[in-house]
Amino acid sequence: QQQVKQSPQSLIVQKGGISIINCAYENTAFDYFPWYQQFPGKGPALLIAIRPDVSEKKEGRFTISFNKSAKQFSLHIMDSQPGDSATYFCAASKGNAGGTSYGKLTFGQGTILTVHP
Amino acid sequence: EAGVVQSPRYKIIEKKQPVAFWCNPISGHNTLYWYLQNLGQGPELLIRYENEEAVDDSQLPKDRFSAERLKGVDSTLKIQPAELGDSAVYLCASSRTSGMSSYNEQFFGPGTRLTVL
What we know:
The structure holds 2 protein chains of 2 kinds. Chain A has no helices and 11 strands.
């Protein structure tokens, strides 16, 4: 069962442009939504995360927008740079303890971002 | 602070052979995760440990996969016998989980790339 759907699969952006990646989830019990960045040959690294009590979170050039009613969240990368070229994964989990599945991250399929200089 | 250490980084084996992966989490992190990442996909949880207890192993194929975390620190994931479809990257992650909340960043290691011939 695909619980977190991510789009697009790949994205090409010019340097200085805005990169937007979207995710939709099904499980309303999810209450923690992180974005991970992965470079080739490396493990995923946390970029930014949000909880559903806020609709937006910004850290530097990275912003998460969250729409609880639509069960959607997105990552915006402002002023995209060639160094941002990587694979980005959205994820979701139940942060609060309750059953054995809390803390388990369910990942989207990933988006390969290429930023041209 | 040293990150999550995994070894080996690469492993090539013949099908039906056994293989083992080792993970050393970040010091002080009580929660350890093993994820499977197929090419072009997001990581999928195999097993999660809280200290030395496996609290979620529902996605671990127990007929051929086994894991242990003796003394609640290092962990080993084993496959016996390996099949062609096991070719993937095996990621280890750790986090510091306290109390009833698991809104904690998971730190990933670089992974072990397994190729089964």
